[in-house]
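Final report, Chapter 2: Outcomes

The project's central promise was a pipeline that accepts a single protein chain and returns its three-dimensional structure in a standardized token representation, suitable for archiving and comparison. That pipeline is now operational. To close this chapter, we reproduce one record exactly as it appears in the project archive, with the input sequence first and the structure output second.
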Amino acid sequence: MMAKKALGKTAKKPSIKKALTKARKGKAAKVKPTPKRAKADAKAASGALPQMTPAQIEEAFRRFQAANLEPKTELKYVNPFTLLVAVVLSAQATDAGVNKATPALFALADTPEKMAALGEDRIRELVKTIGLYRTKAKNVAALSQILVEQHGGQVPRSREALEALPGVGRKTANVVLNTAFGEETFAVDTHIFRVGNRTGMATGKNPFEVEQKLEKVVPGPYRRHAHHWLILHGRYTCVARKPLCERCIIADLCQWPGKTVL
């Protein structure tokens, strides 16, 4: 009995190395033809795929951690305020696009006081390469003024106070709480919604359902970085149109029927 238990313990470690090696070689899995992928994705999008088991979820995060010990946001920022502004600007835009505009903006205004003094017109001129820049410039100017007047020039550390700011919704608040303050929050964007449903890690019909499911299933040791591991996985591996299952480190754990594990 003890020998069997010992074997069980040693059997877990090679699974990480094997999964990472297969993924690096592009031999983790093979995607099925387009019609079968489309059918599988339709089922996933409705939250109808089987849920991963707790053991599978823990193994998935063990692999994410082994591949990337401390994942970071790809948005460029220098303090909680500039992070907040960058996240507000990133709505329906790419991080890369935001990062092209923010260096000049933050060089002039890296505090709420400076941003409020800069004014909406100047902000708009500096972020005009970003989609929806007029509305976003208005929101950045307004939230900066509110931070000065109501929060002593500091970014609040509560979701309620953050969501009361112009241009800040639940997702943005969760990103700021997690990235700036180390809170164990799950900001469900299109990438994480897709990954949660496609893999079966956290199925749900809308982002809030997926967020609530993640709250329940992500093991304690991995909660701090879970948001970034999942968003990076969705951005670079579990992409929307044709996921790169051949490079996926959790392909054998994933519940998506649109691929064949090799």
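Archive annotation: Residues 1-12 have pLDDT under 50 and may be disordered.
This record, like all others produced under the grant, will remain available to the consortium after the project formally closes.
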